[in-house]
Structure formats: C-alpha cells, structure tokens
Amino acid sequence: MRITRESCTGLIIDIQGKLFPLMTDKELLLANCQKLIEGLKLLQVPLLVTQQYSKGLGGTIQEISSLLEPFIFIEKNTFSCVDEALYMEALERSGKSTILICGIESHVCVLQTAVDLKEKGYQPVVIANCISSRDLSEKQVALQRFALEGIPVSTVESILFELTRTSSASEFKAISKLVK
C-alpha cells in the first residue's frame, strides 16, 4: 500500500499536560511528534487533535499546540476517537481515507482508535516513534497488536519521505533538513 499526501490526514491523540510527563522516552516522543507535525504542515496534510477529558488531564502541551495555528481540538471522553461524533464528522468532511496517527497512550487510545478506524473502512497508519505509554512493555504489546490487526506502522522519517515521494519535490529540502 502506497501512502500519498492527497489521501492523508494526521491525528494527534491526547498529548496532554498531566499525561505526557508520565510517558516513556517523553523527550524523544516530543521531538518526533514535532518533526511529524512540521513535516505534515509542509506537505499540506491536514491535522486533527483530540484531548481526553481535558478537565482532568489538562490541555495539549504547549510544545505541540504552538505548532498548530489556530489551535483547535476535539474534546473526547471515549478512548477511541471513532466513538467521538465530532471527530468522525471532521474526518468525513476531510474526505481523507488514510489517517497518520501519533499520540498517547499506545495501548489504549491509539490502539482502540486504529482498530476502530480500520473496522470503519479507513486506513490507519501508526507512526511508531510518535506514540508512547507509561510502560514500554505496553507500547511493545500495542505494536504487536497493530501487526496482528494488519495496521501499518511507520516512522517519522519514513512517512515524510514517502509522502514527499521524490527529491525533486518542492518540499524535499525542507523535509530532509527537518528529519536530520
């Protein structure tokens, strides 16, 4: 399956103030998510953001929200974004069929969202170095589950170059600089 920018939207799941500090390798997670967001913006891939129970878990961390102007999020109380009507309405309006997923936690909201999106006929793609959990073993089990469910997994650098497609693309130099 070839992933094209024309068919894609990005999904940033629950990178929030009270949850993010508990993640394994959070500095690397943040750096990779920032690269992904910047790259998707360069490639004009639209992005949707969710926040899980903002009252309890806080808002999206400033290091992420500041990259998204204007910053708009979809509030949810369900683990799967698919169970949130506002998310599904926004996804349907986008007309996109491939969803590039980053966020937390790997084994809960990311996993349930990816499985549900696939069940609904969408093609989720999990960006492995842009997801995390409080416990590394939870992320590892989630990655195994994605494989069992037939959900593709990629990395920031791999997906950005796949979406760029060629070194003659106008965005190539900026993408190359971003991932190095």
Give a description of the structure:
A six-stranded parallel β-sheet has the order 3-2-1-4-5-6, sandwiched between helices. β1, α1 (26-42) and β2 form a beta-alpha-beta unit. α5 (106-119) runs parallel beside α6 (136-149). It is globular, with a radius of gyration of 15 Å. The chain has helices at 26-42, 54-57, 62-65, 85-94, 106-119, 136-149, 156-164, 172-179, and strands at 8-13, 47-52, 74-76, 98-104, 123-132, 153-154. The chain has one domain (5-179): Isochorismatase-like (Rossmann fold), CATH 3.40.50. It is 44% helix and 19% strand. With 180 residues, the protein is α/β, with parallel strands linked by helices. The protein has eight helices and six strands; from the N terminus they run βαβααβαβαβαβαα.
Secondary structure layout:
Elements: E1 8-13, H1 26-42, E2 47-52, H2 54-57, H3 62-65, E3 74-76, H4 85-94, E4 98-104, H5 106-119, E5 123-132, H6 136-149, E6 153-154, H7 156-164, H8 172-179
Parallel strand pairs: 1-2, 1-4, 2-3, 4-5, 5-6
What is the general shape?
globular
The CATH top-level class label: Alpha Beta
Low-confidence stretches: none
Rounded to the nearest angstrom, the radius of gyration is 15 Å
Q: How many alpha or pi helices? A: 8
Assembly state of the chains shown: single chain
Strand sequence of the main sheet, in spatial order? 3-2-1-4-5-6
What is the CATH superfamily classification? Isochorismatase-like
N- to C-terminal distance: 26 Å
The structural domain count equals: 1
Q: Which sequence of SSEs, written as H and E, runs from N to C?
A: EHEHHEHEHEHEHH
Content of β-strand = 15-25%
